[in-house]
Design brief:
The complex is a heterodimer. By secondary structure, chain A is an alpha+beta fold. Helices cover 50% and strands 11% of the residues of chain A. In chain A, strands 1-2-4-3 form a 4-stranded antiparallel sheet. A 4-stranded antiparallel sheet of chain B has the order 1-2-4-3, with helices on one face. In chain B, a hairpin with a 2-residue loop joins strand 3 and strand 4. The radius of gyration of chain B is 16 Å and the shape is globular. Classes of the chains: A alpha+beta, B alpha+beta. Chains A and B meet through helix 2, helix 3, helix 6, helix 9 and helix 10 of A and strand 1, helix 1, helix 2, helix 3 and helix 4 of B.
Chain lengths: 279, 118
C-alpha cells in the first residue's frame, strides 16, 4: 500500500512542534489569500462575509468530527466542544490566544487575550469589525459546536467593536448547551464536504517514539498546548490540520462557485498560500 | 519544504529527489479517487496538473525555483522543478502580495519550551 505523507513523522520533535503550529495556521493563510481577491472581484464586503460563512460552516463540522475520532474526544457535552476548539485551525495557538474557564458539562466561557485577526481588521473601521466579529462569527461558531451538540450555542458576553478602544480581553463568550434549544442542522455545504474523498482520508499514526498524551480522553486542560502530545500523536494532529485547511479550500471553492461562477476554480489561492506557508 | 508544505494535498505519499539543480516531486495517492480533477479545492488543482501551486511552494524556499513540467503519470502526479543558481528570483505573485496586509503572513510563533508546553 502506498504510504501516507509521513514527513511529519520523520521530523525531530522541536521541528515537528514548529511545523505543527505553522500547519495549524494555514487555514487563516487560505483566507488571507482568498478574501482580498474576492473583494476585488466583487467589490462587495457582503460577498466576502457570506463566502467566509459558507466556507467555515461547510468544513468545520466535518474536520471537527475527524479530530474528535483521532483524539478520542468523546461525548456531546461542553468539554468535548472545548477540546475540539483547542485543536481547530480556526483558533491557531498564539495567533489567537484563547483562555478557557470551565464551569460544568453544560457551560463554559472563553476569551481572547489577544486576537491578531481583530488587530488586522480594526484599522479598516467598525463596519469590517462587525463583519468579522458579528456577521461571520454568529453562524460559524454555532456550526462548529453543532458537530458535537446541535443544541449548543456560543454567545458573546462582549465582543468588538471595542469600547474603550484598548479593551482586554479582546472578546469574551459563553458556550452553553440547553436541551430546549432548537437543534442546529448542517449547513448547506456540510454534507457535500463530508462526501468528498478528501474527507475520508485515513490518518494512520506512527509507532510511539516518546512519552506524552496519545489522545484527549481526559478533563479539559485550559492551558492546552501541542507540546503536551507525544510525537506520533502530534504528527497525526498536524496531518489533521493539513486536512482541515484542504477541507476549507474545498468548502471555499463551493461557496465561490455559487457566488462568482466557475472562474472560482483557479489556483490563485494555492499560489498565494504556497508562497507564504512555511511548513 | 516540498515534503512538508501544507498546501500540497494530504493523502499522497511525497517522494522528493534532488539531483544537482533538478528537483523531482512524485505524489502518489493512497486512493485513486483522490486523483480526480473535478475534486474541489487545492486537491483538484493538483490533480488537474495545474503547476503554479507546485512552483510557488518551491519558491517559498527559494525564489529561483522554476516549474519545468508537471504531468499525471502511472497514477501519480510528477513535477520537475529546477533551481538554477543563475536564475532571477521570481517576483512575489499578486495573490501573495495581497496577503501581506495581514499579520498572518508575518506572524512568528514563540517556540520556547514554556510556550509550546514541551
Amino acid at each position: 500500500m502506498t504510504r501516507q505523507c509521513d514527513a511529519f513523522d520523520d521530523l525531530p520533535r522541536p521541528e515537528l512542534l514548529r511545523v505543527a503550529l505553522e500547519t495549524m495556521h494555514v487555514g487563516h493563510l487560505l483566507d488571507r489569500a482568498l478574501m482580498p481577491q474576492l473583494y476585488f472581484a466583487t467589490e462587495s464586503f457582503d460577498a466576502v462575509d457570506q463566502v467566509a460563512i459558507d466556507e467555515w460552516m461547510g468544513a468545520s463540522p466535518v474536520y471537527t468530527g475527524r479530530m474528535r475520532r483521532l483524539m478520542r474526544i468523546e461525548g456531546d457535552a461542553v468539554p468535548a466542544i472545548v477540546k475540539a476548539l483547542q485543536l481547530d485551525c480556526g483558533f491557531p495557538h498564539q495567533y489567537m490566544d484563547v483562555g478557557w474557564t470551565m464551569v460544568d458539562d453544560l457551560r463554559c466561557e472563553f476569551f481572547l487575550r489577544h486576537c491578531s485577526v481583530l488587530l488586522d481588521v480594526e484599522p479598516y473601521g467598525e463596519e469590517r469589525v462587525r463583519g468579522m466579529c458579528h456577521t461571520i462569527e454568529d453562524p460559524t461558531f454555532d456550526a462548529t459546536a453543532y458537530a458535537t451538540n446541535p443544541c449548543a450555542r456560543i454567545r458573546p458576553i462582549h465582543r468588538p467593536p471595542r469600547a474603550p478602544a484598548d479593551r482586554l480581553p479582546h472578546c469574551h463568550w459563553t458556550i452553553e448547551i440547553d436541551p430546549a434549544n432548537e437543534p442546529v442542522g448542517p449547513a448547506k455545504n456540510t454534507r457535500a464536504v463530508a462526501a468528498l474523498p478528501l474527507a475520508r482520508i485515513e490518518n494512520v499514526r506512527a509507532a510511539e517514539r516518546d512519552t506524552g498524551w496519545t489522545d484527549y480522553a481526559r478533563d479539559v486542560e485550559p492551558e492546552f498546548k501541542l507540546g503536551l502530545l507525544s510525537s506520533a500523536t502530534l504528527a497525526a494532529v498536524a496531518r489533521e490540520f493539513q486536512i482541515q485547511a484542504h477541507l476549507l479550500s474545498c468548502s471555499a471553492e463551493m461557496a465561490l462557485v455559487e457566488r462568482v461562477g466557475a472562474d472560482a476554480r483557479r489556483p490563485a489561492r494555492a499560489v498565494g498560500c504556497g508562497r507564504v506557508a512555511r511548513g | 519544504m516540498l515534503r512538508l508544505v501544507a498546501t500540497l494535498p494530504p493523502g499522497f505519499s511525497r517522494d522528493v529527489t534532488v539531483r544537482g539543480e533538478a528537483v523531482h516531486l512524485r505524489l502518489e495517492p493512497r486512493s485513486a479517487e483522490l486523483l480526480d480533477g473535478a475534486h474541489p479545492g487545492w486537491l483538484g488543482v493538483a490533480a488537474r496538473g495545474e503547476g503554479l501551486g507546485f512552483e510557488t511552494a518551491a519558491q517559498g524556499a527559494d525564489p529561483r525555483a522554476r516549474l519545468e513540467s508537471v504531468a499525471l503519470r502511472d497514477g501519480a502526479i510528477e513535477a520537475e522543478i529546477s533551481v538554477r543558481a543563475a536564475a532571477e528570483p521570481a517576483p512575489m505573485p499578486k495573490a501573495a502580495q495581497l496577503m501581506s496586509v495581514s499579520s498572518a503572513t508575518t506572524f512568528r510563533f514563540d517556540t520556547s519550551a514554556a510556550r509550546l508546553g514541551s
